[in-house]
Amino acid sequence: MADEERKSRDLTILMKEKINQKLSETGEKERLKDLLRSQLVECGWRDELKMHAKEIVKERGIENVTVDNLIAEITPKARATVPDAVKKDLLQKIRSFLAQQPGL
After folding, report:
1. What is the maximum span of the chain, computed from C-alpha positions, in angstroms?
2. Any idea what DSSP says for residue 66?
3. Using one digit for the tens of pLDDT, what is the confidence trace for 19-45?
4. pLDDT at 104 over 80
5. Distance between CA atoms of 60 and 52, rounded to whole angstroms?
6. CA 20 – CA 100 distance, rounded (Å)
7. What is the three-class DSSP state of 74?
8. Which pairs from 15-21 meet CB under 8 Å and 24+ separation?
9. What is the full DSSP assignment across 15-64?
10. pLDDT tens-digit series, residues 48-94
């Protein structure tokens, strides 16, 4: 059973690599990133995280916060607070792109 799981995992990794390559080659990855950025700005997500970062710096003092520490602390909240509508829209666009790609 472990051999089958490894094969399945290897196929999944290979498929992710192929998808990522196709997204990059066609420029779709950059277009989707731009769309995602604009949607996150429009819904206020970016401003919310910016305020959260400022609060952390204010609480601890600028001398006691590094960029790496700030990123490590903000990242979980950032991922958890992306609106479902934004996630669904991005996923739909990726699926639509993949459906138009032969051999994927």
Report:
1. 54
2. -
3. 999 999 999 999 999 999 999 999 999
4. no
5. 12
6. 15
7. helix
8. 15/104, 18/104, 19/98, 19/104
9. HHHHHHHHHHHHTHHHHHHHHHHHHHHHTTHHHHHHHHHHHHHHHH-GGG
10. 999 999 999 999 999 999 999 999 999 999 999 999 999 999 999 99
Number of Cβ within 10 Å of residue 46's Cβ equals 15
C-alpha span between 94 and 53 (Å, rounded): 30
Average pLDDT over residues 7-24: 91
Element containing residue 93 per DSSP (H, E): helix 84-99
The amino acid at residue 23 is L
User: CA-CA distance, 22 to 38, in Å (whole number)?
Assistant: 23
Per-residue pLDDT of 73-84, as tens digits, reads 999 999 999 999
Distance (Å, rounded) from C-alpha 104 to C-alpha 98? 7
